[in-house]
Amino acid sequence: MAYSIPPPSPMVCAGNLETNWTAFKEAWLDYRIAVGLDQKEQAVQVATLKTIMGMECRKRLKSLTLTDAESKSHDSIIKKLDEHFKPARNVLYDRHKFFLSSQQQEETVDQYYMRLTQLAEYCKFGDIEQEMIRDKLVIGCTDAAAKARLFRLKESDATLKTALESLRISEATNSQLKSMSGKQQSLVADTETVNTKRYNPRQAQYQHNRETSAGPNRECGNCGLVHKSKQCPAFGQTCNNCGKRNHWRKKCRSKPSVNRAANKQAHEIHANAGDVDSDNPDSYGFDLETIETVNQHNTEGVKYAVARVKTQQHKSLRLKAKVDTGAKANILNFDTYRALFGPQHTLKPSPVRLSGYGNKPITNLGSATAISVQHGEKTC
Questions:
Q1: Alpha helices of the chain — where are they, by DSSP H?
Q2: Among candidates 108, 52, 43, which has minimal Cα distance to 74?
Q3: From which residue to which does any coiled coil extend (predicted)?
Q4: Strand partners of residue 302
Q5: pLDDT computed for residue 310 by the predictor
Q6: 141 CB burial (10 A radius; 0-12, 13-18, 19+)
Q7: Rounded to an integer, what distance in angstroms lies between the CA atom of residue 325 and that of residue 240?
């Protein structure tokens, strides 16, 4: 019988000695009864205790003052070791630690409950120990919803057992909801990935350019220009003949539409260098603020809008600008601005970010507004 039950581990004489001694003492007393040592002679009990307690604890025992009779008594040795490892306690300080203890972020309800039980052991609460543990368990827990439910209970129903069970159920429920929420977020992310694969603008542009420009020396079938692969300027543009996208009119495969070309409305234009007629022999461009309905003019297959621009420096200038219905801004070079507004004019700061085809950035130096822009009988 004595050899079928393993002895307790030796006393750990490091760290929290009081806690370690309490654990060793409890294990030793259980072992002593289990193997029948309590029925043996005192000499056998003392010898077994000294053997199991370990060398470090045995050295401490030798340093204690014991009479010859005490050194031969099991209970006297246990008492002396209690006094050594359990010094006189300050109950006020122990209760201070108990009342300040709160549930930690990663601490479970059961772990928090066990910690409170250990702290309450030294507080000498007496008959109200269970109530004190219940109160601190509810007040110190991190689950605000469960705490509110417990506050609504009657005093007779708010026992330590009820509070502990309620907090455990709430903890398990919150954990399950968190797990379900994580799975739903993962499902949404997978769905978004699938939807992204269904349409990818870059893949569409690549497919468009691959089909229309096989090499650098071959004319593109959508714009009529020779350009590098994946850099077709007609991609994303609307044909002025058929109204379809990703090609220009001169490469349109549909039949020409007379009505569409006769009176095309444009609200935005891009002027080309050399399209401003003035006394200055150089070529300039101009940033138009707005321009209303204009008629298209064909010059060697290229469409232009002709308007007269009035500024503070010039009464009337003839501006020939290329129509681009897909653009969202009217942009000209800096030299044109100087020709129209003069060297003393100052540009207004503009927060607008400009980009060309393929999102290539365009430097924005500022903005300027003309007094009026006239085409035919229309003035804006």
A1: 17-34, 42-53, 55-63, 68-71, 74-85, 91-100, 109-120, 129-140, 144-151, 160-198, 201-212, 258-262, 334-341
A2: 43
A3: none
A4: 299
A5: 73
A6: buried
A7: 9
Q: How far from chain centre, in Å, is Cα 362?
A: 32
d(CA 263, CA 204): 32
Task: Give bridge partners of residue 44 from the DSSP assignment.
Answer: none
pTM of the model: 0.39
Measure the CA–CA gap between 136 and 100, rounded to whole angstroms.
9
DSSP H helix total and E strand total for the chain: 13, 8
In the prediction, which pLDDT does 363 show?
A: 82
Domain ranges of the chain: 17-85, 91-178, 200-262, 264-379
Beta carbons within 8 Å of 335's beta carbon, 6+ residues apart: 273, 282, 283, 284, 285
C-alpha to C-alpha distances, 166 to 76, 105, 128, 149, 158, nearest whole angstrom: 45, 19, 21, 9, 10
Secondary structure of residue 319 in the 3-state scheme: strand
pLDDT, mean of each 10-residue run, the chain (380 residues): 78 89 94 93 95 94 92 94 85 94 93 94 92 94 92 88 94 89 62 53 56 60 81 83 85 67 40 40 36 45 66 67 67 72 76 72 79 59
Instruction: State the pLDDT at residue 75.
Output: 95
Q: What is the pLDDT of residue 281?
A: 34
Helix/strand/coil (H, E, C) string of 230-253?
CCCCCCCCECCCCCCECCCHHHCC
Point out which residues pair with 361 in neighbouring strands: 355
